[in-house]
Each structure stands twice: as C-alpha cells, then as structure tokens.
Amino acid sequence: MNVVQEIRRINESEKRQGLGASASWHDDYKDSAYIYIGGLSYDLTEGDVICIFSQYGEIYNINLVRDKDTHKSKGYAFVQYEDQRSTVLAVDNLNGARVLGRTLRVDHVKAYRQPKQGDDELPTERVMNAAPEVVEVRSERSDDEEVMREAGIDPDDPMAAYYLK
Q: Which contiguous run of DSSP H or E holds residue 79?
C-alpha cells in the first residue's frame, strides 16, 4: 500500500473511532509546522505551490527543491505554515489530490533542516517566476498602437509600455 492510501486509511480509521486531536497520529508532529509535498509537476513554480497550499493557512517559507546545475524543479517541496494546525488541514485535504495530472503526496515533517545557502547553489541570473513575458519589438514605425496590436498587446492595458521594452 502506498503512502497516500495509508494516510487516507489512518484518517478514516480515526474518524470511525471518533478519536480527539490529542489521540490522532497528527499529534506526533505537533512541534513542527513543516510539510513535505511530493509528486509536483516540474512546471510548477514556488508561486503556484503557494497558491495551492495557502488555502489551509499562512505560509511562512517554501523550499521548492531544484537541481543545482539546471535550476529545474525536482518535483518536491517543503512548506512551513504559520502554525501546526494548518499542516493537519493540508495533509488531510491535499494528500492524494491530483494537480496537473499528478497525484500529490503531502505529509508532515518532524525535523526539517533549512538548506545551506552557499553561493554555488543559487542561480547567478535573476529569476522572476511571476513576471510577465517581455515582448521585444523593434520597429521603425512611430505608431505604438499598431506595434502593440501586432505583438498581441492590448493598447489600453496599463502595462502595455512595459511589455514593449
């Protein structure tokens, strides 16, 4: 039986028995506000993970683990919530959820260690996951509105000048 099904089985068993919070398996993790998230799509960014998991509590920290050389996601992350109760909600509600065709494994982390922040581990170029794509248009024309339309930019968009940089 895989971990996702095992967590569901334990939760259902506790529900049938009517166990209180102090008797729950979650109580073993009462001193940790961290969760492990596995099975993430490699295309998800930190912002995407925050959007999904912030529905169960305030997120203080996220570590989307990336390859040291390519800086691409390895498909798992660690999230720190404001309090431990949020971890229980996230584990119970998102473990086994399907996101972008992949099944998430969400579980508690008892003793999380922050990653080392060595200079060789950080990307050398600025990474802006949430920034809009900049469209570079070089034209001799002075009619900016026509250039914007050709680039697929709405001239009435307040950010239109930014996109044309």
A: strand 73-81
For residue 115, what are its two tokens? 């990653």
The 10s digit of each residue's pLDDT in 110-158 is 877 777 765 445 445 544 445 556 666 555 545 677 777 777 777 777 7
C-alpha dihedral over 128, 119, 38, 53, to 10 degrees?
-50
Q: Which residue matches tokens 């959820």?
A: 97
Closest CA to 79 of 58, 104, 101, 103: 58
Q: What angle do CA 164, 42, 69 make, to 5 degrees?
A: 85
Q: What is the 3-state secondary structure (H, E, C) of 95-139?
A: CCCEECCEECEEEEECCCCCCCCCHHHCCCCCCCCCCCCCCCCCC
Q: What is the pTM of this model?
A: 0.59
Q: For residue 98, what are the β-bridge partners? A: 103
DSSP labels, 19-88: --GGGSGGGGGTT--EEEEES--TT--HHHHHHHHGGGS-EEEEEEEE-TTT--EEEEEEEEESSHHHHH
Comparing CA positions, the residue from 162, 158, 160 lying closest to residue 128 is: 162
